[in-house]
């Protein structure tokens, strides 16, 4: 897989470059489909760990028992989403990007309303994916549409998603993030993932994602664990965007915590 392939999860992809992104995504999807049979069980080795955001990544890795306990609790108490419209995109280093995100237990009209509002702001900001904590709503939910335009592509809403398998094969894509305006950099991720999730009515389902869709999903999934894309950059890549990160911290002083 070429390192030059560009993908821009939850990012402001300019209209002019959208066709290029989609065609590249389609190519990436085709190229990686052969790696489907190489999926393996999630384990400690599956996550490409960098040293930053360690607490969030460690928490994500605990998975299993803690996640089940939390899920059982949520089902018992029926965690219902709470939000205020209109939504707005929270920029790094806003605290909502690092907060814990609750498992959703109530599947009602409010949840549907949140999904629609998330798509609306995602399209308005020219993104292809958006996770609820990015709009200050700390629940485990994401939306995406690879085409990045209403009426085109496939709108996907995933509630309480889990990754059950990662592919062994990984690739390097240039990512952006709506919470990090104007920052684009290479991030390594598995090329394919198997996912379990619920839809807006609470129905559970499984799916296998490849190529650009797998890339977008994993970027958004990280948001649900409070992991941000620069947590996964190499030191060299991080160094190349350090100035822009510092500028964001200066531009959004109300957002705690400061720094990485
Ligand atoms: Zn993002």
Structure explained in plain terms:
- By secondary structure, the chain is an alpha+beta fold.
- It has one domain (15-33, 43-183, 190-251): Peptide Deformylase.
- Helices cover 34% and strands 21% of the residues.
- It is built from six helices and eight strands.
- The chain has helices at residues 15-32, 54-62, 64-77, 109-124, 211-224, 235-251; strands at residues 39-41, 129-131, 141-144, 156-167, 170-177, 180-190, 192-198, 204-210.
- The strands form two sheets. Strands 1, 2, 3, 4, 7 and 8 form a six-stranded antiparallel beta sheet that branches.
- Strand 5 and strand 6 (180-190) form a beta hairpin.
- The longest helix is centred in the N-terminal third of the chain and has 18 residues, at 15-32.
- It is globular and about 45 Å long.
- Mean pLDDT is 80; it is low at 1-7 and 11-51.
- The structure holds zinc ion (ZN).
- Residues 9-10, 177-179, 219, 223 line the site of zinc ion.
Number of domains: 1
Which CATH C-level class is it? Answer: Alpha Beta
* Low-confidence blocks of residues: 1-7, 11-51
Query: Largest sheet, if any?
Result: 6 strands, antiparallel
According to CATH, what is the topology?
Peptide Deformylase
Instruction: Round the Cα radius of gyration to an integer and report it.
Output: 17 Å
Bound molecules: zinc ion
CA(first)-CA(last) distance = 29 Å
Order of helices and strands: HEHHHEEEEEEEHH
Number of H- or I-type helical stretches: 6
Count of DSSP strands: 8
Overall outline: globular
What proportion of the residues form beta strands (DSSP E)?
15-25%
Question: Structural class, from secondary structure content?
Answer: alpha+beta
So, the CATH homologous superfamily?
Peptide deformylase
Q: What's the oligomerization state?
A: single chain
